[in-house]
Write a structure and sequence with these properties.
Shape: elongated
Number of strands: 7
Strand order of the largest sheet: 5-4-3-6-7
Pfam families: DDE_Tnp_IS66, DUF6444
Structural class: alpha/beta
Radius of gyration: 36 Å
Protein name: IS66 family transposase
Keywords: Coiled coil
Strand content: 5-15%
Largest sheet: 5 strands, mixed
Distance between the termini: 81 Å
Length: 498
């Protein structure tokens, strides 16, 4: 049906009435427009407040750099569950068989032999097969032996002619304290490797070895071991700074109620630690020293003095930030979801190339295409007007975009900083289960013992033998000559030889 045509006014009074009605309608529309503008401002303000609250209370270990232990029960419940495998528990068909290794005969303490009856039920004699007996070994821990106590007796005498007293001389190899090399070695290992408190070390030494020392003596033994481990500590620091690729990370360290920082620098074979009062660039420079290789880190600005062409950002940290961006509303969330998808695709493409390195040409094409999409998405986020937080993050990341792709320069550069996080994790556990250090001695002991024992374990060395050798030379007032079997650091710039 055709719409009704409005009747036009025929007189001047009717025209005036139409004009008045239109003016009233315009006034009403202006009021509605003003009300809509106020509501839009309120919506924008509430949306900003919501984003701030989500950013403050919605942060978890999955979308930020927070530790998993800091997640709330609700956040733990939201963690995605790993899909169960359809395979049964235990060994799978076709896998190499694993058997308990037997001690060789020379390491067997006692041998018990058992023989069958000499006569068979049929009346015949049973011939013993002496060549291949079935061997079953039972391992036990013997009661602790009595401690090895050496008493040093120093005599004095008096001259029968002049009456001058003469005292025996203290040999250099006799310790001035009450602990021998073995006890000090185990005090260091129990505290640095197994993270026991001084009170726990005191109890364990008594229960296992029947030796009793005060907690003050145990603390003093730790202090003695610091300069003895110094040569190995410096050796590891010099070695790791000469490598082509290293990982760096930092975590909190407390001295009393004051906050310090423990820094870690590691490669595939050694780990080096350092405590510092600062988390800034000066501390990072002290950690890196003369390091000129590629450095894998998170997006922390403290490593800003490292040239961008030598720094690789951790993609695991980037994924967590993108996951947080993807949880926002509007265009900011769309940009975050796109960045998250590109990050997952980049990691998957890189892992696939590591499994099939012969497809290098196709890998390069895919990575370059992903990089162009990554840059375009960051530029899109930079142009957003209604999501300031996403815009700032895209601007910050676009400035450091080249550091996301440094791994394309050298196949030895990994995508994540997993190595540094793994070596620093034991200290985080140590910090949570013990009191803070109370002096500068504790600040020196923790990084030194973690560097020495951590490197020894990574190299497959026996920590007890290593520490006993170190403490034996230290107690004898000799220069510690023990060193790690490390290759010489690279003499040239690794970037020139990569």
């Amino acid at each position: 049906m055709l719409a009704a045509v409005p009747t036009l006014p025929t007189t001047l009074d009717e025209a005036h009435q139409v004009i008045v009605r239109q003016q009233e309608r315009i006034t009403e529309l202006e009021k509605q427009a003003a009300r809509v503008a106020v509501l839009e401002q309120q919506v924008e303000m509430l949306q900003k407040q919501l984003e701030e609250l989500v950013a403050k209370f919605g942060s978890s270990s999955r979308n930020s750099s927070k530790a998993p232990s800091s997640d709330s029960p609700e956040q733990r419940a939201l963690r995605p569950k790993r899909k169960g495998s359809s395979r049964p528990h235990g060994g799978q068909p076709g896998h190499p068989r694993h058997e308990r290794a037997l001690y060789p005969p020379e390491q067997v303490t006692r041998t018990e032999q058992y023989f069958p009856e000499s006569t068979c039920s049929c009346g015949g004699a049973v011939a013993i097969d002496w060549g291949n007996p079935y061997r079953h070994q039972v391992t036990d821990i013997a009661p602790p032996p009595p401690p090895d106590v050496t008493e040093h007796q120093f005599y004095q005498g008096v001259c029968q002619s002049c009456g001058i007293k003469h005292h025996s001389q203290w040999p250099d190899w006799v310790p001035s304290g009450q602990m021998g090399a073995g006890v000090i070695a185990w005090v260091v290992i129990l505290s640095g490797q197994f993270r026991l408190s001084m009170r726990q070390i005191q109890v364990l030494l008594w229960e296992m070895c029947h030796v009793r020392f005060s907690t003050g003596a145990i603390s003093k033994a730790q202090g003695k071991a610091i300069p003895w481990m110094g040569p190995l500590y410096r050796q590891v620091g010099q070695y790791v700074r000469g490598q082509a690729v290293c990982h760096a990370d930092e975590t909190r360290h407390y001295r009393g109620t004051n906050t310090y920082w423990l820094w870690a620098l590691a490669d595939h074979s050694v780990s080096y630690f350092m405590t510092h009062y600062s988390r800034g660039k000066a501390a990072a420079d002290a950690l890196l020293g003369s390091f000129t290789g590629y450095l894998v880190t998170d997006h922390f600005s403290g490593y800003g003095n490292v040239p961008p062409e030598r720094r690789q950002l951790c993609w695991a940290h980037l994924i967590r930030h993108f996951r947080k961006m993807a949880g926002r509303c509007g265009e900011g969330g769309s940009v975050g979801k796109r960045l998250l998808l590109l990050a997952y695709t980049t990691v998957r493409t890189h892992h696939r190339w590591q499994q099939q390195p012969d497809e290098a040409a196709r890998y390069q094409r895919r990575i370059l295409r992903l990089r162009r999409s990554f840059q375009a998405t960051l530029n899109k986020g930079l142009a957003l007007e209604n999501c300031k937080r996403t815009t700032n993050q895209c601007k910050h990341l676009l400035k450091d975009e080249a550091m996301c792709w440094t791994f394309l320069k050298d196949s030895r550069i990994p995508l994540t900083n997993n190595r540094a996080e793994r070596v620093i994790r034991p200290y985080v556990q140590w910090r949570k289960t013990s009191f803070a250090s109370q002096s500068a001695q504790g600040d020196r002991f923790r990084p030194t013992v973690m560097t020495v024992l951590g490197t020894a374990r990574q190299l497959g060395m026996n920590m007890a033998i290593l520490m006993r050798d170190i403490c034996s030379q230290g107690l004898a007032h000799k220069s510690v000559s023990v060193r790690f079997p490390l290759a010489q650091p690279l003499a040239s710039n690794p970037l020139q030889t990569a």
